[in-house]
Amino acid sequence: MTPSAKHRPRSGGRQSGGSQSGARALRRAVGRGLRAVARPFLSVVSSPAPLRVPGPVSCPVPRLLPLTMVLAALVAPTGPARAQEAVAQYVGGGAAPLRPLLVRSTTDIAILAPALEAFVARTPGISLRYEQWGSNALYDISLAGCEGQTGAADVVFSSGVHQMVDLVNRACASPYASPVTEALPAARRWRNELWGITHEPAVIIYNTALVPAADAPRTRFGLLDLMRRPSSPYRGKIATYDIETSGLGYLFAFMDSLEATTFGGLLEGFARTEAIATCCSNEIIEGVAEGRYLIAYNVLGSYVASGHGPNIGVIQPEDYTFFLSRALMIPKGAAQKDAAAALLEFLLSPDGQAILAQNSLVQRLDGDVSSLSESAQRPIAIDPKLLVAMDAHRRQRFVTQWRATFGTSP
Amino acid sequence: MAEAVAGGLAHRAQRSLLSRVMLGVLSLLMVGGCVVTLAAFVYGRTAAQQAYDRLLVGAARDIAESIDIIDGAPVADIPVSTFGLLALSLDDRISYAVRGPDGTLLTGYADAHPPASGPVPGRDPIYFDARMQGEGARYVTIVRRFSERDYSGRVSITVGQTLRARNAMALDITRGALLVTGLGGLALILGAFLVIRSAMRPLERLAEQLLARDPYDLTPMPEDGPAEVAVTVHALNRFMARLDRQVGAMKHLISDTAHQLRTPVAAIRAQAELALEDDADHLPHRLERLLRRTRSLGSLLDQMLSRALVIHRTDNAPPEAVDLRDVALLVLEQRDHEVLAPGIEVELVIGEAAVLVLADEISLCEAVKNMLGNALRHGAAPVRIGVTAGAATAEIWVEDAGDGPPEDLLTRIGGRFERAAASRGNSAGLGLSIVRAVAEAFGGTLRMGRGEAGFRVTLALPEHSAAPSQGTPT
């Protein structure tokens, strides 16, 4: 059920000077990389015999045996020039269509799998191919698909919400409306082309074994104080997303810069404590669990809850906590828009939301550990204001500032 | 049954009038509604255009403001509020581009261009319509000039937005205007219906009154109600009065005829019986008397026909300008007097100027003939016929040299029925009654009296002054 491979481009240490050219190369290589990687999967799909599980004849709707097939741990061998990080295939009962519903997402297969299995189980005659991508790569491939350079997915589901807004703004999405989608609050949908599916906090995590309870920062101010201590034991032990390789990390950092003046202090603190900027949620969380990092800032709460070690403490900062709603869109060039809409309907339905909630993708307000005040909850609204984050000059300035903090200047 | 049919007809006619007026009102309202709809749509579009153009140019200015020259190159630091401004039109996509002097894209979307043709963007913003990924969109371009030590030139800022919010607003305004107009129209239709129906009510009442009338009841109806209906009722009343007069005249004529014919016919019968029974030598005398009686009866019949004619014409022929001298001449030219009284000369006394009255020439001729006939029969020669223009009246008269009828007869003479005359077998009374009827029909009078030259009967009518006075005498 868990992806059999994880990408860990840079574990620990500072960014190397070659990272920028690597990021550029990523975009160029996406098309090539994808084709190269996709071919073996297609060959598997096109020979459906081992995937199909014929149901009993007496039962017209066969009980589904979800074949969660982690087909590949195919990762580009070096550096960030990669396509999908992992792929899973789900085949439902009945006559599966020749071409499975292609879902491209940034979400870890492990935590989305129950929802996908439930969807495939209750939708007869569907099969689903799930590709897990990094957010920047997903944006690039989706944009390429929109412009007709590569095939489009049927569903794109990303935590890089600003990138999704940009894709919709570039007319890359196809509209869909139903009572379920229209019941979403205005901050969780745009143009009937983009919908916020989840509700996940951005949290601070720490290693409960290594960080004294008194040190655990309840707020950003606490974290700042922690980082300002002379000869801090946290030097080199604080991690956060690398905003250049992680679309989500960039979004969180950018929103932080808009939200409060603490951001400047945080950057200064990161610089002082020689904090680590790294790429991926799992990498960060495992690092904290293993004690390589003591504290990680701006981690998606949903990943933390999904079965990592017991020694991870989770804090929703009390000054403010961002809540991210991963955005889903149906690309303009999607081949199976009806099936894609069915998936959307399912994810937004009470059942779908309940399954997502079990996997911490939807944090319910009631019965939660958090005692956040209403004003401290800052949902990231899905609207055109996020386009500012995509502006080239704005991003350039921001990244420059970030690099200055983390000590790598171009 | 006939009344029921008539009632049905009247009802249907009235309903069709109402429906025709309503149809007219409806079509007027529909034309008005179309005009208002069109105007509202144009207004809505313009209003939406202006409102959202302001947002657009506000966003463009925000971006322009945020541009700094850093290391010799313009760098934009687009504030979030810019997109907050544009996000006010909720569902519209946004495109923007900041371009250097040579048109190279500095930041933003590659598909947002300043207008290819037209005026070079200067101080004022330039609005234009273009497509944004196949969707209609509105753009604005403004220019910011830089004159720094390390950078000098024009940076253009183009911001565009799709049209959903504008169209929605235009539609909203149009819909609102239509709703109000529609409600107003409905109120107008209802009001028009009520007003028209109440305006039609007097007509309905008139029809009911007419229907409820006794068929022989020709008395006038009350002329109340609105002016249009009063006019109708007035015309109706006049019509009924004329009908009443005609019916009355008819009745009188019949009863007069019966009365007046009874005696002469009885006399003729008596003479005829006597002629049969009497001796043969008395026969010529009897036949001669019989002839005289018959002639007298013929003259009586003439008179009665003449009177019937006069009564008919005075009610039916529209009065026109008549020169009284023509009437006198006509009467003389017909030479009836030579039959009545051969050998008696009739003298004509007329002036140079035309003497005009508003009357019917034939009726006047009949009247004057009767006047002349009376004078010839009962008066003494010489007989004169003349026309005199008075101060406000025009007179035509007949004069003889005799003394006229006795005083007591004068007071009764000219009545419709004069038994004395009838019993004598002549028709003087009837003749004068014709003259009097003509006089009354045209607003004049009949005057009789002794003058220095003898007995004169005068028919005086109001002079018709509007006509030109220089008529040529015939």
Automatic annotation (TrEMBL), chain B:
- Please spell out the taxonomic lineage of the organism that makes this protein: Bacteria, Pseudomonadati, Pseudomonadota, Alphaproteobacteria, Rhodobacterales
Name the chain's protein: histidine kinase
Residues annotated as domain HAMP: 197-248
Transmembrane stretches in the record are: 21-43, 176-196
Q: Where in the cell is it found?
A: Membrane
A GO CC term attached to the entry: plasma membrane
- Which InterPro entries does this UniProt record tie to the protein? 2CSK_N, HAMP_dom, HATPase_C_sf, HATPase_dom, His_kinase_dom, HisK_dim/P_dom, HisK_dim/P_sf, Sig_transdc_His_kin-like_C
Q: Does the keyword Kinase apply?
A: yes
GO: which molecular function terms? phosphorelay sensor kinase activity
Q: Give the main EC class.
A: transferase
Instruction: Tell me the domain of life.
Output: Bacteria
Show the Gene3D superfamilies listed in the entry: 1.10.287.130, Histidine kinase-like ATPase, C-terminal domain
Q: Which UniProt keywords apply?
A: Kinase, Membrane, Phosphoprotein, Transferase, Transmembrane, Transmembrane helix, Two-component regulatory system
EC number(s) per entry: 2.7.13.3
Ranges where the Histidine kinase domain occurs: 256-465
Pfam families associated with the record: 2CSK_N, HATPase_c, HisKA
- Spell out the PROSITE patterns in the cross-references: HAMP, HIS_KIN
Q: Which reaction does it catalyse?
A: ATP + protein L-histidine = ADP + protein N-phospho-L-histidine
